TrEMBL record:
SUPFAM superfamilies: alpha/beta-Hydrolases, Peptidase/esterase 'gauge' domain. PANTHER family: PROLYL ENDOPEPTIDASE. The keyword Flavoprotein does not apply. Residues 478-677 form the Peptidase S9 prolyl oligopeptidase catalytic domain. This is Prolyl oligopeptidase family serine peptidase. Residues 10-397 form the Peptidase S9A N-terminal domain. InterPro entries: AB_hydrolase_fold, Pept_S9A_N, Peptidase_S9_cat, Peptidase_S9A, Prolyl_oligopep/macrocyclase.
Amino acid sequence: MSSPAATTPDDPYLWLEDVTGDEALSWVKERNAESLDVLTGSERFAELRDGLRAVLDADDRIPYVRRRGELLYNFWQDAEHPRGLWRRTTLESYRGGDPDWELLLDVDALASAEDENWVWAGAGVRYPDYSRALVQLSRGGADATVVREFDLDAKEWITDGFTLPEAKSRIGWIDEDTVFVGTDLGPGSQTTSGYPRVMRRWRRGQDVADAEVVFTADETDVSAFAAHDHTPGYERDFVGRSPDFHTTEEFLLRGDGTQVRIDVPPDADTDVEREWLLVRTRSPWSVDGVEHPAGALLCFDFEAFLAGDRTARVLFEPTPSRSLSYHAWTKNHLVLAVLTDVVTRLEVLTPAQDWARRELPAGPDLGSVDLMGVDPDNGDEYFLDTDGYTRPSTFLRGELGESSDPEPEVLRTAPARFDATGLEVRQFFATSDDGTTIPYFVVGRVADVPGPTLMTGYGGFEIALTPGYSGVIGRGWLARGGTYVVANIRGGGEYGPTWHTSALGEHRHRAYEDFAAVARDLVARGITTASQLAIHGGSNGGLLMGVMLTRYPQLFGAIVVMVPLFDMRRFHLLLAGASWMAEYGDPDDPTAWGWISQYSPYQNLSADASYPPVLVTTSTRDDRVHPGHARKAVARLREQGHAVEYYENTEGGHGGAADNAQRAFQWALVFEFCWRQVG
């Protein structure tokens, strides 16, 4: 049966969905030339581009590290190595300030030798010997990667090792000669969202198609998964599926191939560590007659739970102002990252002391402190990064004690990338249409008169926008006299899962009403005016920008729409779009289309409306959010006679840029456009 959305005849720009079609790329080339001619010719653009590139390529940036065994690993990009270097060193050398880096892989040299535009996409290092890695490389920054096995001792590729051609694969080590893998093996191997449907146990020397199938998801699921827990004494295998973006069904895979379902609510998050099962609820859950709210963290004995015991210990319970952002294990402790009105603090729980609780050193006021790495197999070491909107990062290392924690050592402190003299960070709360209080941060100088302001938001997928230092925003906007605003609207994770679910599906309008409420509140407080207020957002935040354009154009002086969803009638038919129907709804369902159609930007563009100037950016290599969304939006805006600029990077994937030069160029376009319109 044909999809109603697929057969709708009223879209004259479907041809722009042909990502690499000659006609579509010719259109892209023309639009790029027109907009770059307008935006890149000024002295200010060159200053912005070069200044941002200097920030991104600075030699005195913090080289963040992750421990793998005895060594610390780092991936580094700079002007000389735009594609990057994968390297490692010892803790002793790192402490010295000028580490003796051991080079593992030069991605620039590899790209040159193979005549490919390789972009680093990560590596999985094998436990416990740490002598091999499964390296993932992307062409141009796409989500799809090639996989190659790398010898970390010889620093060379394993020619007959585990290798996969380009696909959206899942792969992870089981032991030295075995991995779990899911990849594109032709019809039936992928879900409708384009992710692995079939997980296999792949042994060295086998053809991947001959590997043992350990789990198969439904074709309409988002993805299947399989993972090996290598914790000594607790080695286990897990398999399962994600029916949609927010639900999971997980099984313990026994040695005889039988599967034991972990019987928790499908929308809950689970974590098995040694003898413990942790469950973070995303909706209320009644356990042995006790109702636990959404956002709670519960602890069970894992084996007892599988046998039917539901004795639960509450490790975290949310309040209206506090939510659990994430947790992480060390060997003897559990660390909780807790948001209190969007400010992060860390707490340490110790199972051996009946889950005694204490705080780790806090970050700055209205700032963040984030775990950057732990090593639960080997000890209680942790790495932290603390920063704030005007406070550069400090990178620390510590070790958790039995009942108290020694002061962590400062490993690196990043220098300031912009002059923050006179800048203040303030938090305000706006009132949305339904009376809900919406927090937002304002960074800038306190002035008697309104000034140029750049505002952003996201509001989706339970992602929280927490305070953080950005040399790019600082140098491109704040240091030039602008004010920067971050709106913590519903749909995100700032107040836990209920903050997210309150803007799902038919309630999506609440996220947009929240953002508009913050815009009005900024004007009411005298911080800015509508004509001086520019906004930007990407991906789901790009959809947010599209809704602001079509529903609230009078509130803004300029809008920057980046790698956006825009055509919500067809989003589920394009690339990974089917996986997001749990967030937005199914456009083929008449009831769901009834509410989606009210805000879908593409369908609501009007020739009769008065829109502020618009800049739209995307990437040809974005294989997550289809570039057709951005292309068609611009084509329709042009057809209707509205002012719109467009830039499509031929690389970059969903991030929009593949290296620092491209990032600097793209952000310079954004700032130049905004300064022209609201400065």
